[in-house]
Amino acid sequence: MWAGGTILSYPSWHWFIVCLCRASDKDRAPRFYNTLKIFHAEGIMGDLNDDPEQKLLDEKDLEHAIINLLPQKNYDLIISHNPTGEYTRHLRHEEISRAVIKLWYEGKISTNELWTFAYRDSPNERYPIAVKTANIYHSLDKKNWLKKYSIITETFGFDKNSWEAKTTPKEEAFWKFSNSSDAMNWLQNGGILKSKS
Hints:
two-stranded parallel ribbon; globular
């Protein structure tokens, strides 16, 4: 949904995709692994709680799950959720972003760059749109957008009139950080950036 076009745009990169929830979901898990094949990526699912009521997870359990699912400690790039979520609102996305930034800041994972999704609600609606002023903003070419849309509608099986299908962004945007202190300061200041740097 948030970075699929970027993954498709860089097929020579070695992608490892981590989903922290729903490993035991007999419907969702096979769809996730089928998507990895489309991306020519590796990946893994965890089984943290992702029930609709979205109760807060224990911070240490979440951090432990992230570390245990990652195949290594050092990366060239990590892409994760935004601490303010991608739309109003998804608590699990917010928690994951905070945990990733904290783990990076504490040196428990390392990366040359961290990108967090940069989306906001469209005016008067809950459809997320990419933030044009984010550090990285690009429109997907038709081929990659159609492939991403096909993953949502065919691989994951969302109806073409569903929120997920209607939401599938044609633009992708990210806030980019090259050091963990900047990311932590940003997190502590509410996780909102206003312009390109």
